[in-house]
Amino acid sequence: MGGDPARIMVGRDRELARGTGLLDDVLAGRGRLVLCTGEAGIGKTRLGEELAAAAEARDVPVAWARASDQGSSPPYGLWRLVLSETAVGAGSVAVFGAGVGPDLGADSGIAQRFALFAEVRGRLAAAASGNGLVLVLDDLQWADEAVGPAVAD
Asked: Distance between CA 80 and CA 64 in Å, rounded?
């Protein structure tokens, strides 16, 4: 956290230590999932920022996607943002191209959805193949329904 007063985080030493410990696990080849939940304003995003900074300091790539107000993003909008992140091999998000847009709901072709999910999974696995990958999905309560039920922000 250094000496920069703008970077001081108060009251989350235990959580930050736990997160950086899990980052050590990732660097040792053991993948981890961290889920931060709680009321608005308690520092979940700030904790994510600190963990992302710790990851970057250890040469672990970080991809960050933040959901916007509910109803303002296209289906799978959060995943479109993830795939456009440099850490995930930014470039074409053509996987969300024609026919994989707003009508990609429960009645869409199962094969088409499976191909979409396989592409996302493959891109994330490729991005994580070096030093791992820290993927931060922020403000999930605003994510479109295609992401699934919101459980945290």
From this structure: 11
